[in-house]
Amino acid sequence: MRTTVQDVARAAGVSVSTVSRALTGGSVSPSTREAVMAVAHRLGYQPNRAARGLITGRTGNLGLIVPDLRNPFFADVAKGVTARARAVDCGVFISDTDEDPVAELEAIATLRHNTDGILLCSPRSRDAELLAAADPQNTVLLHRRVPGLSSVVADIVDGTRQAIRHLRALGHRRIAYVSGPEDSWATRQRLAGLAEFGSDAGLEILSVGSVAPTFDGGVLAGDLVLAGPATAVLAYNDLVATGLLHRLAARGAVVPERMSVVGYDDISLAAMSHPPLTSVAVPKDRAGAIGLDLLLGRAGSMTAAQGAEVILPTTLVVRASSGARH
Amino acid sequence: MRTTVQDVARAAGVSVSTVSRALTGGSVSPSTREAVMAVAHRLGYQPNRAARGLITGRTGNLGLIVPDLRNPFFADVAKGVTARARAVDCGVFISDTDEDPVAELEAIATLRHNTDGILLCSPRSRDAELLAAADPQNTVLLHRRVPGLSSVVADIVDGTRQAIRHLRALGHRRIAYVSGPEDSWATRQRLAGLAEFGSDAGLEILSVGSVAPTFDGGVLAGDLVLAGPATAVLAYNDLVATGLLHRLAARGAVVPERMSVVGYDDISLAAMSHPPLTSVAVPKDRAGAIGLDLLLGRAGSMTAAQGAEVILPTTLVVRASSGARH
DNA sequence: GTGAAAGCGCTAACAA
DNA sequence: TTGTTAGCGCTTTCAC
């Protein structure tokens, strides 16, 4: 049997309430506290979080919901969350919904009752669904914004701006854009960033349509891009950019001489691609960590309950896949 | 306030125990069960797992400890665990120890008291430490074997055999091997596989030493391999193989014409490398799922408490990075 | 400053 | 089949 407060109380010759106070920081005489702590340590006492949660109403745990842990983007987010959680001694339930919206809603329903809060990565669900399922008081959206819910997002519009300016500075005048899922918030943000250059006389943004935000989507996009007059391409994300790189190589189009390629997100893959990929870096792990702080009321004056909207800066990381126009 | 069994009981006009029975599968009349279920659903009732766990002694949750979620290998393992967990309605605490052995022991200590069991990925800790910290009754080791603890591992010896035979069939006679962390179980297994070919007269296995099991480790290994007479190389894992591929490309050594490369683990990166990587596929997600079943006593007759040792088959996936000797 | 007792939400005896 | 009751381990009034 596990050691309980009872055991510690008996061994220390005090009451259970004194043990509880000594361990949780109530008002106890210093000598008593010390004695209790010593006994607790000697007995290897670990408080039962469930029992504590039952009475305090706080579980000390929170939930993280992601569409796919295999996607390096979400793995990075999860890493940021777990790292911060470890620092503040908070448990993290992770739910991988496998891109299934139904599983996502189920996860929200379960976790909202069994945790102190939910960090939600939901690129695809509709605003209304999210608003219906989530509790605004203790839900923080990661990398997506929905009015009425707290969120931590990256400044995608500015990231797009940096990418296009970079390519323009390299002499590119016709830049293809490979879009992602049409209904997603991230897609809309990217397009908003591109729209800024609509009035730029010397520049043409050529949309080659939407593809799946995957390696295969990028392979598909490769041919579409080569069919046009573009000398550079901005991809929806690094997975797409990597597929693009492959297809270009297979078609004999040398990067960056024939075509410059810029990705999005700066996942670890970007540095390992061939050639290494120029990419708009998004602070994925930091977003996770800040989201957690918001949930726990540790983010300075901001809390999730107040409907905080945090925007994190993006940075263009220049590698070998982008170069001067030939 | 959340709805409780009390609320459901009142609304359904029955006692709390009837509600409990109706919801957990006790003996209740079909009509009552149906009525209770309907009311529970209407009220959006979600049982408080903490309260349930307090009395049943089972939390319905388990813990997964990994060194690094960013590593695709462990992301795959986590995916397997969470997918199976979702199917059996079980929560998963994930703890990313960031390769820190101290954090790992802390995670074990916390989770063993707050979950029904622990799935542990610990490539580096020493056997004795693990045996001291873990409870053999409800701990399952993933991708590592320690006498006295249950484990789910891949047949690495056979995987190595397949890789070497593949290269030999392609005409290679001098095969370099890039080793990983010297003290790890996985490293020893790979070496055991290679040892089988020690007496093969027409074959020479050239060890080029140990490197970090990362992309950078592979870059480093590239030069070491090129300095020798080998025409093919087997890398510790796919991350190393990818770094190798990069360095070989940078040095002008065409793969597979000048050098065949075979990796290990078949992470998603393998299919996206340039050229796509031949790799020994390890059933990462299946291992996670089976580990979970072992913990929950759902794996047929086997349970973690009995010290089960499951060995999963490996398969060589041939892609473009390996070819006939020139 | 300390102890006794109530009770968080739930399940499992035990009665009926 | 159903209801009543005790109690899981803990924190928190409320007395003292």
From TrEMBL, chains A, B:
<dbReference type="Pfam" id="PF13377">
    <property type="entry name" value="Peripla_BP_3"/>
</dbReference>
<keyword id="KW-0804">Transcription</keyword>
<keyword id="KW-0805">Transcription regulation</keyword>
<dbReference type="InterPro" id="IPR028082">
    <property type="entry name" value="Peripla_BP_I"/>
</dbReference>
<dbReference type="GO" id="GO:0003700">
    <property type="term" value="F:DNA-binding transcription factor activity"/>
</dbReference>
<dbReference type="InterPro" id="IPR000843">
    <property type="entry name" value="HTH_LacI"/>
</dbReference>
<protein>
    <submittedName>
        <fullName>LacI family transcriptional regulator</fullName>
    </submittedName>
</protein>
<dbReference type="GO" id="GO:0000976">
    <property type="term" value="F:transcription cis-regulatory region binding"/>
</dbReference>
<keyword id="KW-0238">DNA-binding</keyword>
<feature type="domain" description="HTH lacI-type">
    <location>
        <begin position="3"/>
        <end position="56"/>
    </location>
</feature>
<dbReference type="InterPro" id="IPR010982">
    <property type="entry name" value="Lambda_DNA-bd_dom_sf"/>
</dbReference>
<dbReference type="InterPro" id="IPR046335">
    <property type="entry name" value="LacI/GalR-like_sensor"/>
</dbReference>
<dbReference type="Pfam" id="PF00356">
    <property type="entry name" value="LacI"/>
</dbReference>
